[in-house]
Every structure is written in C-alpha cells, then in structure tokens.
C-alpha cells in the first residue's frame, strides 16, 4: 500500500500529523543540509517502528538534536550520548544515537569535499535504489535498504512518494522533485 493510500485510510484522530507530512514535505526537494540530515536521522530512528511514532516524536527529536544542526551534533560527546539515552521524547537506542553522531561527522566531510550534503547527493543522481543503498552503506552507519529508500523518496530523489492519482504528486513535480529531472550532461 502506498503512503498516499495509507494516509487516506487513517482515522481522523491519527491522520493529522501524517497528512501534514504527506501534503507538505514528503517527496518534495530539500535544499538545506540540516533538514536533509534531520530526515536521515528520522528515517534511521523509524527502523523497526511505525512512522506514526516518529512523527509524534519529531518535536522531541528537533529539541534533543539541536534542530539537527550538523556541526552541533557532530560535536556531541559522551555526556550528549547519555542525555539522549535518557530522553523519553526520542527513540532511546544506543545504535541509532551513535549513528546520528557518526553520520553528522560524515556529512561534515561531504560538505568539505563537495560543498554540501545536497551537492554530494546531486553528484550521484540519478542512480538505482540498489546503487544508492550500496553508496549509503559504504558512507554512513545504520543505512539499510528500507532506510535509504524511504529517505530518498522523502526528499524527492527516488520516485514513489506519491501515486500519480494523488493530488500531491503534481505539487511535488511542480516543486522540482529530483527523480523527474534528466541527468545533467557532463
């Protein structure tokens, strides 16, 4: 079942967070590196859990991870790890917390080498999902196939965020979803 159909079938009391995410963020291009990093952290934390859990805890993640500021998270130390492990407003999983800190440091390196996290993504576009997964596994921690696929769909790099008959599909296309663009000739 697609996310579009899933959201349409949710009862009203649980639909609002999903609808807002689906209608305004999911599948749309993201230019800001901190937002890209934040999406990656959220997708990593979703592993083994429902997306509803992550959406309900998103404000907690923003607060706990300093609004996903890459440089701040990259500088986290053992006291920050302990603080995060004790924070009930996020997912308290040592592997996921360690991955966020490690991946922030990796993103810093990508920024130094390519100018930005987004530029690094653009450099590799277009690729198949399998190729993206191999690249992410080689580059980041805690990035399996589902995490990478969901992350790239959420930021418009892979198709599938919206069905063609979903009204948001056309808004994502108009906003410049990356997957629709032809590769730039070099």
From TrEMBL:
Keywords: Glycosidase, Hydrolase, Metal-binding, Zinc. One of its GO terms (biological process) is base-excision repair. It comes from the Bacteria. It is an enzyme of class 3 (hydrolase). Zn(2+) binds at residue 22. SUPFAM superfamilies: DNA-glycosylase. This is DNA-3-methyladenine glycosylase. It comes from Advenella mimigardefordensis (strain DSM 17166 / LMG 22922 / DPN7). The lineage of its organism: Bacteria, Pseudomonadati, Pseudomonadota, Betaproteobacteria, Burkholderiales.
């Amino acid at each position: 079942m697609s996310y579009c159909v899933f959201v349409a079938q949710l009862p009203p009391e649980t639909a609002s967070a999903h609808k807002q995410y689906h209608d305004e963020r999911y599948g749309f291009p993201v230019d800001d590196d901190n937002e890209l990093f934040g999406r990656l952290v959220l997708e990593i934390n979703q592993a083994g859990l429902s997306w509803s859990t992550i959406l309900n805890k998103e404000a907690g993640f923003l607060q706990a991870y300093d609004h996903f500021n890459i440089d701040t998270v990259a500088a986290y130390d053992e006291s920050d790890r302990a603080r995060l492990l004790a924070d009930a407003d996020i997912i308290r999983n040592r592997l996921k917390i360690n991955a966020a800190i490690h991946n922030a440091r990796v993103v810093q390196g990508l920024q130094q080498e390519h100018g930005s996290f987004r530029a690094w993504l653009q450099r590799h576009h277009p690729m198949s999902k399998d190729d993206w997964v191999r690249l992410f596994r080689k580059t980041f921690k805690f990035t399996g196939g589902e995490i990478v696929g969901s992350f790239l769909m959420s930021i418009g790099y892979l198709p599938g965020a919206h069905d063609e008959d979903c009204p948001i599909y056309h808004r994502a296309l108009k906003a410049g979803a990356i997957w629709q663009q032809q590769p730039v000739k070099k």
